[in-house]
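Notebook entry, structure prediction.
Reason for the run: the old model in the group folder had no record of what sequence produced it. Starting over properly, with the input documented here first.
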Amino acid sequence: MVVLDLPESLNVILKNGLIWHEIVHILIATPFALYIYKKTHQFKSVLVVYFVTLILDIDHLADYFLFYGLNFNLADFLRLEYLGFGKKVDWALVPFHAWEWLVILILINIRKSWKSNWRGVLLGYIPHMIYDYVSVGGVTFYFITYRLIVLERLLP
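New structure, fully documented this time:
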């Protein structure tokens, strides 16, 4: 069942939740978007940078459902409590948040032109990971391999 508690959701938006987190992602991605526009003169490239920067957080849904079960409450999702937001996070699924993906994107981009959508994907991914690294977890937290090792220790 989907629950939409609009007053509570708006209250969360004004606090330190997912919406505020996404606004900061957009702000941090802006220099990358401007840079790709300077190189390509294509508005499409700018949109790719912003789209990737924002869509990466869709993987928070996996952690939300692991924490709350199959019921969805917008306010709970925006609050980010299922990730221990504002606290040190020891483990989260967040499969799109990984330095391994950054390495793969760099390798893909080595032979691509500036007008390639892959360049926009890379330039959207970099600021997202930088901000999350600074605001949420350390360097090791964003390695999938590290999270698997920690998960193994957490399991009974």
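Summary: The chain has one domain: 2-154.
The old model has been moved to the deprecated folder.
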